[in-house]
Amino acid sequence: MKILLILGHQRPGSFCHAIAETAREAFRSAGHEVIYHDLYAEGFDPILPNAEIAKEAELSATIARHCREVLDADAYGIVHPNWWAAPPAILKGWLDRVFRQGVVYEFGPQGVIGKLKGKRAIVFTTSNTPRADELRLFGDPLENFWKTCVFGFCGVEDFYRRNFESIIMSTPEQRAGWIEEVRQIVQQRM
Questions:
Q1: Is the pLDDT of residue 100 over 80?
Q2: Contact, 5 vs 35, CB < 8 A?
Q3: How far apart are CA 59 and CA 139, in angstroms?
Q4: Separation between Cα atoms, residue 71 and residue 132, nearest integer Å
Q5: DSSP of the chain, one letter per residue?
Q6: C-alpha–C-alpha distance, residues 178 and 164, integer Å
Q7: Are 22 and 85 within 8 A, CB to CB?
Q8: What CATH number does the domain containing 60 carry?
Q9: What is the pLDDT of residue 118?
Q10: Containing domain of residue 144, as a range?
């Protein structure tokens, strides 16, 4: 399979970077081709210009390439921290610019037509809020965002998300166990 792996974390050496590297290695070890984008390292511009909003807009070479990669991929891996119950702005901007009408969805007479049917997605997120507090205070907004609002809207039904928390209170042993869990999830889900 061809996997599109997207990382949205600004600090090299972060736990998100460790997750992304582990996932990339696990995908490759399973024989999959991996297209990898570290959005911060690449300096991806998350700002959606007005001229790019229209379905028929002329896209920059970078955005056009990302759109092709999304369509060509059989599966997606997304890695990011939870910032205010959402992905970081750079990743949200990537979605705004790349997960476009005409690329990943269309509007038809009966409503939305997802164009990513038959594809898979794994999302790994990190947070500092303990899970019980997160659920009690907010529910799980990232689960709804990725599963329903993004991938479900675009036709992806085979979806899995794992949040690792609390990063700030975790031990090196816990993080090592979580990295092994990433490897196992990739092996089981792909």
A1: yes
A2: yes
A3: 37
A4: 37
A5: -EEEEEE--SSTTSHHHHHHHHHHHHHHHTT-EEEEEEHHHHT------GGG-STTPPPPHHHHHHHHHHHH-SEEEEEEE-BTTB--HHHHHHHHHHS-BTTTEEEETTEEEES-TT-EEEEEEE-SS-HHHHHHHH--HHHIIIIIIIIITTT--EEEEEEE--GGG--HHHHHHHHHHHHHHHHHH-
A6: 7
A7: no
A8: 3.40.50.360
A9: 97
A10: 2-189
Query: In the structure encoding, which two tokens stand for residue 178, read together?
Result: 């979580």
The pLDDT tens digits for 106-137 are: 999 999 999 999 999 999 999 988 788 878 87
Residue at 147: amino acid letter: K
pLDDT digits (tens, 9 = 90+) for 48-86: 999 999 888 999 999 999 999 999 999 999 999 998 888
- Whole-Å CA distances, 120 to 5, 75, 137: 12, 4, 30
Residues 101 and 55 sit within 8 Å (Cβ to Cβ): yes
Domain count of the fold of the chain: 1
Specify the residue for token string 């059989």.
74
Q: For residue 60, what are its two tokens?
A: 């920059």
Q: Return d(Cα 148, Cα 58) in angstroms, integer.
A: 29
Nearest-5° Cα angle at 107, 106 to 108: 115
The number of C-alpha atoms within 13 Å of 56 and in the hemisphere containing its C-beta is 0
